[in-house]
Amino acid sequence: MEIPKSMRAELDAWNSGKGIDLEMWIGCEGRFALAVGYMTIFWPEFEVIENFIVRKGSLMDAIREFSSQPGSSRLSVERTMNHIHLVDLHHRGCPDATPDKLLVLGTTLKEIYETKLKCQFPDRPCAVRLYVPENTDALDEYEITFWQTAHENVDA
Predict the structure, then answer these.
(1) What is the pLDDT of residue 94?
(2) Is 89 in contact with 41 (CB distance < 8 Å)?
(3) How far apart are CA 66 and CA 73, in angstroms?
(4) CA-CA distance, 139 to 85, in Å (whole number)?
(5) 143 phi-psi bin (left φ>0, alpha ψ -120 to 50, beta other)
(6) Which pLDDT score is estimated for 153?
(7) Are 74 and 51 within 8 A, CB to CB?
(8) How many whole angstroms separate alpha carbon 116 and alpha carbon 46?
(9) How far apart (Å, rounded) are the C-alpha atoms in residues 84 and 44?
């Protein structure tokens, strides 16, 4: 994995300027509680509700509400229910959120979700999209979502 440029200075400052690698840094700075929490994002549980694949714990009321909106489709509902703004993994305004970190995180999450969905739902092909805004400094617009490709040509 390419270490985001914005992290390099922090890692290089460790050990009286000799630096530290990412894995050793996690060992120094990380917490097990956070590692367990991150599992909900990095290896999420999915389930099928009314022919939608959604992250486990999604509310049926929310699915029905999105489905009842004018112009909604199975595709738009599934994409909306499954989207995550990457900056929301931590509080908005978190000072260490940077475009390069969100890009590395989003790219990796895209690969993870593609793998997990294909493994868990081999008979329901899915598309995973990482949205990177044109204005790369618009941190709140980095987003990942997924949907079943069968919904692409079907109306609600």
Answers:
(1) 81
(2) yes
(3) 9
(4) 9
(5) beta
(6) 80
(7) yes
(8) 9
(9) 12
Q: Token digits for 145?
A: 């979502």
Q: Binning pLDDT at 50, 70 and 90, where does residue 156 land?
A: very low
Cα(144)–Cα(105) distance, rounded to whole angstroms?
Answer: 10
- Residue in this structure with the two tokens 């987003």, named with its chain if needed: 143
Measured CA distances, 74 to 56, 109, 117 (Å):
18, 23, 18
pLDDT (tens digit, 9 = 90+) per residue, 79-101? 999 999 999 998 877 888 999 99
Dist. CA 120–CA 10, nearest whole Å: 38
The amino acid at residue 80 is: T
Please write down the HEC assignment for all residues of the chain. CCCCHHHHHHHHHCCCCCCCCHHHHHHHHCCHHHHHHHHHHHCCCEEEECCEEEECCCCHHHHHHHHCCCCCCHHHHHHHHCCEEHHHHCCCCCCCCCHHHHHHHHHHHHHHHHHHHHHHCCCCCEEEEEECCCCCCCHHHCEEEEEEHHHCCCCC
